[in-house]
Design a protein that fits this description.
two-stranded antiparallel sheet; 55% helix; 154 residues; elongated; mainly alpha
Amino acid sequence: MSIQSTIDPYTSRTLFSGVRTRRIFGFCIDVLAILILTALSSLLVFILGIFTLGLGWLLLPILWQCVALAYTAFTLGGPNAATPGMRAMGLEMRLTNGTMPYPLLAAIHALLFWFSMTFLTPLVLLVSLFSDRKRLLHDIILGTVVINSSVERR
């Protein structure tokens, strides 16, 4: 069974069952991973700042954004089409035509999420309650969908 033929939420509801809840828990796992990576890279930037007489410390204010963007771009846009948190919850991201996302799309996906949460408040997450595929606003804009990867493997 190919994912291209089963992307319709009306013919294959199992692809989207439990996606919203799993996605929230996967996000929490990813936030923890990003915090750990940011702490490690902050230590590296601190040491770099000592050797560069303080110039390296100019990276500290934007460090977490860079770490989070790289984390999302290379994991969500990678061969598994999922961040480690999404993989732990059994989720994958696909474009609506069934193809896998690429790193640039994953980075844009993360940026749209951050901007929508910043400017439209967390109420933007209510969009998933009314979406047939349990998609969020930035998923709809980019034409992506999150599915149960366990259903696809069966």
